[in-house]
Design a protein that fits this description.
The protein has 296 residues and is mainly β. Helix content is 0%, strand content 59%.
Length: 296
Amino acid sequence: GNDRTIRIWRVEDGQLVRTMRGHTSSIKVVAFSPQGHYLASGARDGKIKIWDWQTGLEVKTLQGHTNLLTDLVWSPDGSKLASSGWDRQVRIWDFATGTELQSFTHDSLVRAVAWSPDGRFVLSGGDDLSLKVWQVDLGELSAQLKMEAKVMSLSAAPHGTLVAVALENGALKVVNHATVDEIFLARYQGGVTALNWSFDGRYLAAGTDRMIQVWDLELREMVQSINAKNNILSLNWGSKSHLLASGSYRGIIDLWSGESGENLLRIAGHTADVKALAWSPDGDYLASGGEGKAIR
């Protein structure tokens, strides 16, 4: 969040259980390791920190990005991380050693990165009007899909080869990166500010202005439109449920039922915008990152 803190919340009652400080610029993204023991956070200044979130201790810092960091994702097996930034790089990190294994270069700044569920590919997109598919073990570009506008965000389906793509022109589409087929879902005038796929691959949530649109990908239709009454900056589905967390301006975190659209809980703990959210793999905790200086 903008208070530069990372905060950990207990989902059942919204209780703050831990606050972590260490970043000196606002936090763009937080992500739990697949096994749940560690939390990674990426900040505006390009620094990535790994935390033992149960003790609140910082384990290591990964330094490589020379400009604003935009996205950060763990590989499905938890052995690596992929990050992207304004330095036009996608960087692959070895978690155990904290070293950079390789980097892939775009022609322009990179805004989003995602792993394929099998861990073989990293997908990335940004201002060079393409979705790139990198084969990590070979360290090379496997495919490149042309996009009609800048790629603003990506979310890979938890199984298979589908990836949701939000473009600067407001288009929301689902791309099969293996066959290059595209499904166009909608075009949102205000653009899509956040994008996240549910744990079972059924639902895709998109934040647009003050609305959360929930798409059922089996039916290929929008099944829920939630008026959050607050600009949506981040979205994250529960690790084992169709609960959906949203982060917005003025430090507000809301918990919604993705199925009924009902607001189940509101947490107001950050002093500034909540741009980063992540559920723990057991579904019991939610991490949030603010624009100020702590991780909650």
